[in-house]
Amino acid sequence: MAGGGAGCAVRHEPAHHLESGADLRAGPHQQLGDRAHRRQRLRHRALRRHAGAPGARCRPRVQRRDVDEREAIRSMLCVPLRVGGTLLGVISAFSTRPAAFSAHHQRVLEAFAEQAGIAIHNAQLFEQSVRGARETRALLEAGRAVTASLDLERTVHVIMEQARTVLGVYSCGIMMRDEHGFLSSVASLDLPEEVVSSVRVREGEGITGVAVAEMRPMQSADLWNDPRHRYPELARAQGLRSLLAAPLRVGDRAIGAILVFRRDVHEFSPAEEELLLALADQAAIAVEHARLYERLEARVADRTRELDQQKRFVEVVLETLPLGVFVLDAELAIVRANRAGAGTLGEAPVGKSFLGLLPGALAAEVETFLRRAIASRHVETDEYEVAVGADVQVLRLTAAPLAGATAHVVLLVADVTRAKQVERQMLLTERLTTAGRLAAGVAHELNNPLATVAGCAEALSARLAESGLADRAELTDFRSYLTLIEEEAFRCKEITGSLLQFVREPGDRRTRTDLNVVVHKTIELLSHQSRFAGARFVTELAEDLPMAVVNEGQFRQVFLGVASNGLEAMDGRGRLTIRTRAIRDDIEVEFEDEGPGIPEEIVGRIFDPFFTTKPPGQGTGLGLAIAQGIVADHGGRIEVQSRAAKGSVFRVIVPVEQSPTINGATTIYDGPPTVRA
After folding, report:
1. Quick check: 411 and 329 in contact, CB under 8 A?
2. pLDDT at 359
3. Which of 88, 175, 314, 337 makes an SS bond possible with 81, Cβ 3.0 to 4.6 Å?
4. Contacts by 209-213 with C-beta closer than 8 Å and gap 24+?
């Protein structure tokens, strides 16, 4: 339109004002930059509906009349920019002629406003997306700096740089709180060192002190005229005009603050406050990590000193032990020996072969013993008789392989000749005295109440069967409990029987046993323990599993011990999978847990007597050692596979008794006493 122009103003929601985005008027004033409250100007009326001014000079609602008169503008048409129900701004048309706009002009401008509104809305969305990506990238960079390095100075510098970049500020700094409640500047991107070191405020005072005390962001839009600011002269000298401070929070306390500065008067938005607070949290983590690392270094230094003292103490103890101690390398050469060791074998020259100190026949046996210990990486103990003149000396050798890149073994040599003689005499005496007073008495006293318990359980079971109540679903658990009472009563009777066997030759009662049944009984016992209530038992039992000739009570003890260890490793939760299978002439019973696994450095020690990873008072360290002894006594073995964070697998392997067996099944036990197929 000749003699006219057009303009666009975008609505800013937080302050409820319009800001001219473009002005195509003829004349030198191309960007007005005018802002006004919506109740004070004609454009704000257009936010609710279109508006027109036939004679702009005589209408008091037109602002900047001097500009309009200078450019001879006589009429104006304003149309709101909308997207859906959202008001984005106003588009305006101007003319130097009065009453220049008709209804047709209004429709054309409204059509254009619809397209312009969509374009502006898309541009705003794109700007928000770019800003969000920039903020996310800044937080990621700050987080990466925190996790990638323990260098506090470098990490804090990265966080300050990210804060300056993403917030578009001039400078950034860090203040830390000391034990007296004062905040001191410790880092800055631009301020000189002498300026940084001079800034110190008390917590609760000033803008930064209040931010730390109240653990929330605080700001000042104009530091030069803000009475809360403690250093206005410093702000003027450095050209710092506005400030935003966010606390460095660790738990429920603040350890300092991060500050950003601008050179203009600026009111920071809530979004900017939240972003700086997120960066402050990253800085707080970095500072706390550095403090913890310093404490750790101090503790390591203390522990190192303690270890040195303990090393000297161990050396003193080693030399004063009445027990021969030898350290041998992979070739069985002596690396070290104490005084008692040299005295037992006559000499102990370092660098010479240990086998050279023994008679020929004994040397071959001891070499086999030591090689076996090194290969298995388990502690091995054996006793050997050595002829010394007309007497026979009994030496007990204990070989303990040392874990490490270089194979070494610690060999303990003890002269147990006298101890063996005393032991044999004591065994004879003890068996004679215990047989009459302990075994018979205890067995009699325990068998009577056990017989009563078992008899009552049998009577109740019979009464259930006779009354026809046994098939009722609500009594299923009751019937199984009675059976369990009977079995455990007879198991206790076996224990009393073992007291009577004390005076007889060692041995145990072994029968053809279905290990699938033993697995079910084991799960039944474990599922009734409250500490394993959150565990899930999964069984994958071979249907054609052969029978094994074992002592059922002892193997139930083995399975209970291995399964309990797996459940305890999972803190009573998680899944314990038990599998059975027949491989050639062996039966394997596998226990797989989902626990944290066993560290590689201690896998070889878990079967050692008295070795345990549990806290003091929560384990004897004998469970797996006893289980291994029982299985080995049956001609079997226990194998272990474990990886950190991948769980552990224990396999109990026993020989097959060649005969058909009872069918197995696959079932899942999900807490007591539910069983699902």
Report:
1. no
2. 78
3. 88
4. 209/183, 211/245, 211/246, 211/247, 211/254, 211/257, 212/177, 212/183, 212/247, 212/254, 212/256, 212/257, 213/254
Interatomic CA distance for residues 6 and 91, integer angstroms: 7
How far apart CA 46 and CA 91 sit, in angstroms, is 9
Domain with 389, as residue range(s), is: 321-415
**How far apart are the two ends of the chain, measured CA to CA in Å?**
85
What does the alpha-carbon distance between residue 626 and residue 606 come to, in Å, rounded to a whole number?
Answer: 12
Positions in the chain short of pLDDT 70: 1-71, 124-152, 346, 348, 388-391, 405, 421, 424-444, 470-471, 494-508, 609-610, 616-622, 658-677
Quote the pLDDT of residue 3.
Answer: 57
Note the pLDDT tens digit of each residue in 351-370. 888 888 887 778 888 888 88
* Number of residues that this document lists for the chain: 677
* CA distances to 351, 478, 481, 526, 674 from 469, in Å: 80, 11, 15, 27, 21
pTM over 0.70: no
CA distance linking residue 353 with residue 361, whole number of Å: 15
In this structure, what token pair is assigned to residue 30? 């191309």
Which residue, of 415, 437, 455, is where some domain finishes?
A: 415
Please count the other Cβ atoms lying within 10 Å of the Cβ belonging to residue 78. 26
Closest to 667 in 3D by CA, of 570, 593, 547, 580 = 580
In a domain, 71, yes or no: yes
Measured at the CA of 53, the angle between CA 52 and CA 54, to 5 degrees, comes to 110
CA atoms within 13 A on the CB side of 593: 26
- 577 neighbors 538 (Cβ within 8 angstroms): yes
**Other C-beta atoms within 10 Å of 300: how many?**
10
pLDDT tens for 533-579 read 888 999 999 999 999 999 988 899 899 989 999 998 888 888 999 99
Residues 620 and 497 occupy one common structural domain: no
How many Å separate Cα 576 from the centre of its chain? 21
Residues 338, 428: one domain?
no
Tally of domains in the chain:
5
Beta pairing partners, 575 = 536
Q: Around Cβ 428, how many Cβ atoms within 10 Å?
A: 10
Same domain for 668 and 527: yes
DSSP 332-363: -BEEEE-HHHHHHHS---TTSBGGGGS-HHHH
Does residue 389 lie within any of the structural domains? yes
